[in-house]
Amino acid sequence: MDSLEAALVTTPWGAVIGNALAILVVLGILLAMLRGKRMSFKDKLRSRRAREREAKRRKDLLVESVRTHLVPAFVRQGFAFAPRQVDPGAVERKAVGISPFGQLQRARPDGKTDLVEIQFMTYQRAAFRINACAVPKEGMMTLSGHRTAEECIALGVKDLYSHARPWLRPPLRALRLEPLGEWFSVWHWPFRALTKGDYDKLAMKAVGILPELESALRAGELGPHMRRLVMKPRTMLGSEMNALHILFRSNRFNLSKVGEHFINPCCFGEDLAAWLRPKLAEKNVETTSPYQEDWGWELPATCGRDSYYLCMSGNADNSGNDEGEWRIIVEKRRSIWARLTARGKITADDPLVRLVEEILEEEPAIRNVHREE
Predict the structure, then answer these.
(1) What pLDDT was estimated at residue 238?
(2) What is the three-state SS of 334-372?
(3) Is 27 inside any structural domain?
(4) Per-residue H/E/C for 258-282
(5) What is the pLDDT of residues 286-341, one digit of tens each?
């Protein structure tokens, strides 16, 4: 008995429980994979359609709750509807319905114009955040350089974002993951059907942070539910990355039409990524599908044994014109061990950088290809 008690006392129960939970998670994943393999194609299709219908039901309930509670609260504060004029062309599947209420505007006696957008998550997910900006009458600095007030209003520039879970911000900030947790969404137990009442409560929770938004717009004071994006010109981005910058001029790619699916008005580069991808494939560089970020477009690539991100963005010379300067940031990825041992740093003769430069220089519509010093 004494030996049994000693064994119980000396056993590292924390490690045992942690290992047991890890084993359970792995078993759950394996069971899900086996179940997926055993399902017929029709069953998989039926299951996917059921999930899509449920996602749409939840999204519709949330939109209606926001329309009933949050939008009238903005109207009571003096905002009015002013939908942005955007390119009516094709919209990415994931971006359908991300801004059903368009843009809300409010003119102030001091000459400033307040902009607000209620942005919903992509792929019809039932979550939203509030984006806003107080545009000075003299204009302001944006991610694509200084813009006049009229341009900022037309483009719908935003630099204030709501954060639904302020208690998560300190650890997220420490991990440099602070944007996570910013979306208003309903947490619920699995297999529990969400109702209109759940989303009404969520919309009212968002109404409760409007005093913080008002203070941020009028006085620049950020409450726990608000964060501000510091606007820096493109030339200042990527300075802390393991990257090299390639600049060029062209009017071949879109810099004039703000797509409805753009996360921000400056998110140009979609057509550049689509053009560059097959060019890289011809030179044996593997790529995956490009995706949009809040500053432009990103194209993951593999050259030899090294992995990269090609970050693309452009800045028009004049509003409504495709002529302008483009920037491709070639970021070389490094493992944690490579960072700790100071290995894997990108060099001036990096093979992917040289390939990208060659591709750009071979295109007649592209001029003045050079690296940023």
Answers:
(1) 45
(2) CCHHHHHCCCCCCCCCCHHHHHHHHHHHHCCCEEEEEEC
(3) no
(4) CECCCCCCCCCCHHHHHHHHHHHHH
(5) 999 888 887 789 999 999 989 999 999 898 888 778 899 999 999 998 887 777 77
The verdict on residue 34 lying in a domain is no
Whether 301 and 272 share a structural domain: yes
Query: Is residue 157 a contact partner of residue 147, using CB atoms and an 8 Å limit?
Result: yes
Q: Which of 51, 62, 56, 53 is nearest to 198 (CA)?
A: 62
Residue 92 belongs to some domain of the structure? yes
Total length of the chain: 373
Residue with tokens 């550049």: 272
> What is the pLDDT of the chain when averaged over all its residues?
82
What 8-state DSSP symbol labels residue 184? Answer: B
Quick check: 135 and 160 in contact, CB under 8 A?
no
Beta strands per DSSP E along the chain: 80-81, 104-107, 113-120, 128-135, 140-142, 145-147, 160-162, 226-228, 243-250, 286-287, 291-292, 297-303, 306-316, 324-332, 366-371
Question: Within the chain, which residues score under 50 in pLDDT?
Answer: 8, 85-91, 233-239
Sign of CA dihedral 345, 347, 352, 353: positive
pLDDT digits (tens, 9 = 90+) for 245-279: 999 999 999 998 888 788 777 789 999 999 999 99
Full residue range of the structural domain in which residue 345 is found? 234-371
What's the domain count of the chain?
2
Token code pair at residue 293: 């970020």
Residue 10 lies in a domain: no
117 in Cβ contact with 98 (< 8 Å): no
User: Do 214 and 163 share a structural domain?
Assistant: yes
